[in-house]
Structures are given as C-alpha cells and as structure tokens.
Amino acid sequence: MQSTFKSMRAFMDQPEEIKMKVHVNHNEGLRGYSAEFEQGNYGVDVTDIRNQLTKETTSEAEDEPMDFKQTYHYGRELPKTHKHYNVTLFAPNVYPDTPAQFSEDIKTYWGAMDTLSDTLFEVFAEALNLPRDYFEDKVDEGMDSMNMNYYLPFADRPQNQMGIGAHTDYECFTLLAQDGPTALQIFSPEKQEWVYVPEVRNAIVVNIGDMMARWSNDEFTST
C-alpha cells in the first residue's frame, strides 16, 4: 500500500503538462488523469439517505461546486470482443512514463483489492444468511473501477470548496485506503449530521454503496 501511495505522490507532484499527457481526454473510456474541477456536482437521487432526512442536506448536495482534487482513473479491462465490453467501463488502462514504478505498483494494488473484494462478497453473503458464493456469478465481470485521488492543499482552495462533494456511491461497496489526516466524513442518520471517520494508518474503510443497499433491502445502508 505504501509503495502505491509513493508512486501516486510522485506522479501528482509532476508539472501539470506532464500529467496532462495521460489525461482522460486522450484515452478511451474513463482512464488516466483528470485535473481539479473536472468532476463533482453529484446531486442526490431517491435512494440517497440525505434525501430522506433533511431538505437542507439535499440542497447542499445539489449546489456543491466541482471537486477540488486531482484523480487518476483505473479499472477492469475486458477485450473488445467480449460480450459485455463497453468502452466507458472496460477500456484499456493507461500508464504514465514516470514514475517508472507506477504501473507495477498500481497493478499489484489493484490485484490485492480485487482479492479483498471477493472475500468481502463472501462475508456479506454469510451475514445475509445466503450461501457463501451467492454473489460470485453476479460480480465476476463487474465494472470495477479505482480512483486514486490527490487532495490539494486546503489553504489553496476556494471558499466553501470541498475536496470531493457529498454523495453516495452507486456500486456495491468502495474500499478506501487511508493515509494522512482525518478528513473522510459520512452522514449519520442517527445524529442527522456529518461525522468524521477515524483515520487508521494502513487501514481499509469499507463504504457501502447503493447497489448493496438495494440487494440487501437496506440491511446494509449506503453511506
């Protein structure tokens, strides 16, 4: 994990013109680099827990500015001849020329997270009193993606600007690697307010997404 963080920092520390060589606009699908203010304004939908509690948080989500972060996008690859191939979801990944270790670190980290995801699906199945392999044939060629986010210094941000705006993830779950100051927040339905997720170095936060909430009939709540 630390080797991957090191490679990502080395990439993000490069001049913008170097990073722009692998910008998503130059590649198929959502693969490669995107700069600050190119993603965001997530809004809410009917499944969003914030939409069910207070109009205030709903309006906040709809009015948020674009994200103050830089991102490197990576994802599952499928051959173009595959019956499920979609260029947006399964396009070939791209790698920058520098740092040299980048591609190896990212591939290794992706493989580890893929293995962890398979294990977690087994855990979720058992928690729902389902066969351990229940989810296996439903996610074996999933549209998995990985966003490696670099949050810019807070002192440089515009007023009322967040690193990444309020949202729930649409997929089954998100694995969030922690390395740095406490910053991640979730919306607490009990407190009806945003609360910090404690930062534990080298830990992985499992964040439930909308699909798992729906599949489990809200036994697991999207956060």
Automatic annotation (TrEMBL):
Coiled coil: none annotated. Residues 142-223 form the Fe2OG dioxygenase domain. Keywords: Iron, Metal-binding, Oxidoreductase. GO terms for molecular function: metal ion binding; oxidoreductase activity. Pfam families: 2OG-FeII_Oxy, DIOX_N. Gene3D superfamilies: B-lactam Antibiotic, Isopenicillin N Synthase, Chain (2.60.120.330). SUPFAM superfamilies: Clavaminate synthase-like (SSF51197). PROSITE patterns: FE2OG_OXY (PS51471). InterPro entries: DIOX_N, IPNS-like_FE2OG_OXY, IPNS-like_sf, Oxoglu/Fe-dep_dioxygenase_dom. Belongs to the iron/ascorbate-dependent oxidoreductase family. This is Fe2OG dioxygenase domain-containing protein. It comes from Sphaeroforma arctica JP610. The lineage of its organism: Eukaryota, Ichthyosporea, Ichthyophonida, Sphaeroforma.
